[in-house]
Amino acid sequence: MDAPEPDTPFAAVTAQTSKYGRIYQAYLDKSTPFKAYRWAGTATLFVAFVLRILFAQGWYIVAYSLGIYLLNLFLAFLSPKFDPSLEADEGMEDGNAGGLPTKEEDEFKPFVRRLPEFKFWYSTTKAITVGFLCSWFEVFNLPVFWPVLVVYWLILFSLTMRRQIQHMIKYRYVPFTVGKTRYPGVAK
């Protein structure tokens, strides 16, 4: 298929779309180092969504769907990119799949997330925004008995987190870093 002529309306729309896409990407790139501000904005948006659901007394299926999606994102954020259980199945003879090196010849593998923090934040923010927008349209206000959804989500959360924590303990990895150790009285 040939490229559209430069003077067609389609080409003008494409040019404008790509221009706004570049501007949007530039703002995303500029926001990358401001982790606390990004998450504070997302938390504010989430509080607005929760207040919308509580005051409107509806759209529980939207809230439930958002909760399931956020749980899925959180599990991907906690999971290592390369699953040590698969490496153990492939024949790691010392049983130290993905853990810290125990011998001098062992290779240290740092924790690499399946879902990096920025993509986790970006996906979370987009999902909350979509959920908030859906809560303004009556077509998404399906009649459901919301306590069942809450109980089901809590059961799902506890079972998946239990499985994830057992996986973390079994393969000895911690998905969180608390930063560099600082000793009192030592100059930088």
UniProtKB/TrEMBL annotation:
<dbReference type="Pfam" id="PF03248">
    <property type="entry name" value="Rer1"/>
</dbReference>
<dbReference type="GO" id="GO:0006621">
    <property type="term" value="P:protein retention in ER lumen"/>
</dbReference>
<keyword id="KW-0812">Transmembrane</keyword>
<feature type="transmembrane region" description="Helical">
    <location>
        <begin position="144"/>
        <end position="161"/>
    </location>
</feature>
<dbReference type="GO" id="GO:0006890">
    <property type="term" value="P:retrograde vesicle-mediated transport, Golgi to endoplasmic reticulum"/>
</dbReference>
<keyword id="KW-0472">Membrane</keyword>
<protein>
    <recommendedName>
        <fullName>Protein RER1</fullName>
    </recommendedName>
</protein>
<feature type="transmembrane region" description="Helical">
    <location>
        <begin position="36"/>
        <end position="55"/>
    </location>
</feature>
<feature type="transmembrane region" description="Helical">
    <location>
        <begin position="61"/>
        <end position="78"/>
    </location>
</feature>
<dbReference type="InterPro" id="IPR004932">
    <property type="entry name" value="Rer1"/>
</dbReference>
<comment type="function">
    <text>Involved in the retrieval of endoplasmic reticulum membrane proteins from the early Golgi compartment.</text>
</comment>
<comment type="similarity">
    <text>Belongs to the RER1 family.</text>
</comment>
<keyword id="KW-1133">Transmembrane helix</keyword>
<dbReference type="GO" id="GO:0000139">
    <property type="term" value="C:Golgi membrane"/>
</dbReference>
<dbReference type="GO" id="GO:0005783">
    <property type="term" value="C:endoplasmic reticulum"/>
</dbReference>
